Automatic annotation (TrEMBL):
Natural source organism: Azotobacter chroococcum
GO molecular function: argininosuccinate lyase activity
InterPro entries xrefs: Arg_succ_lyase_C (IPR029419), Argininosuccinate_lyase (IPR009049), Fumarase/histidase_N (IPR024083), Fumarate_lyase_CS (IPR020557), Fumarate_lyase_fam (IPR000362), Fumarate_lyase_N (IPR022761), L-Aspartase-like (IPR008948)
Domain of life: Bacteria
Annotated protein name in UniProt: Argininosuccinate lyase
Amino acid sequence: MSAEKTNQSWGGRFSEPVDAFVARFTASVDFDKRLYRHDIMGSIAHATMLEQAGVLSIAERDAIIDGLTQIQAEIEAGQFDWRVDLEDVHMNIEARLTDRIGITGKKLHTGRSRNDQVATDIRLWLRDEIDVIIKEITRLQEGLLEQAEQHADVIMPGFTHLQTAQPVSFGHHLLAWFEMLSRDHERLVDCRKRVNRMPLGSAALAGTTYPIQREITCRLLGFEAIGGNSLDGVSDRDFAIEFCAAASLAMMHLSRFSEELVLWTSAQFNFIELPDRFCTGSSIMPQKKNPDVPELVRGKSGRVFGALTGLLTLMKGQPLAYNKDNQEDKEPLFDAADTLRDSLRAFADMVPALKPRVEVMREAARRGFSTATDLADYLVRRGLPFRDCHEIVGHAVKYGVATGKDLAEMSLDELRQFSDQIGDDVFAVLTLEGSVNARDHIGGTAPAQVRAAVARGKALLAAR
Ligand code: ARG
């Protein structure tokens, strides 16, 4: 690109062309061209409004809309020549419009600025992205509900400190992830309300002298509200930061989910089987089947946290109103949305295919003294204070470690060494089933409660 060919749209003020490197350095078209559809949508609404406001004639409006529609088709057919010397998506499309329809094309920008235009485009784009992302969340949640329902009776060890704690239903564990995703969904739906406010009409920063009717563009573009201050309208990027914050939380959840899948597919745990299509092998170790999808998602969470930190830093200390800094908002935002959407998609595809190794899980729960709390609770029901029960059971576990026996494997006489309050009804509470069934309240791990939670989850998804 030669310096002579650089952008002419502000040419009047300049006595020499922009330096060729500076033109490339300041250009954003390489990444903001993905806003083309929303840019054209915004321009069509703006032109429609300008006609109703008496600024454009009907013929001018129609020529503009027609030209923009054809430009969209050109772009989608891969026939559009994106020019770096035209800086960004907005000026590329406007220049092409003037090529196609002549002088009328130059009237489109009446009463607006790229400052309100770009803020409008990003919001329209992000609104669509959020809609796709929340559908993927729902799809993943549906998979979790199906699995939870099917495996409500499968027992695994529940962990604290990654040490065996108490037996839980595998379905119950799956539903913990369901809860996290429900909050992610709520957050994105809430964030969308603030994304969906219209800056168009703010113009460069102070509004415009033309008799624009912002209610019209607001309605045409499906915005929920009109931004109430033009300075704020062109400079506010809270909505992008908020999205990245919600996306970061969702990725943090997926990274925790990933970590458990990585652990559980290891030979040491061997709790679940991940179908081959979500794994890869090693180029050197023939025995390897690596859980690549969860590992990659765990790693990708960092990009999204980076986007959040980047955008907060971008906005910190910026004076009103628009500053060129803001051009830096797009790449992190795009990347955060792409990363979250793809990670959710991979998980939504993978979760229905997870297969628990029921016997391995059960054996692990049985081996880890996971019903020790149940024994203590049994003694409490016999009238002993909980602290004393805790100590009695501690001795029983110590004996079990020394003799290689789980609590349920000890004879009544062996158990009675630790308390004469223990009777032969104790074995009912020492079984895994007895333990999970006893936690029979809302949010507890009893299989009946898991099934009730699945039903609540299904109702929640049906109401979306
Ligand atoms: N490419 C610019 C951006 O992404 C568009 C707005 C430019 N406005 C300006 N006055 N230079 O922010």
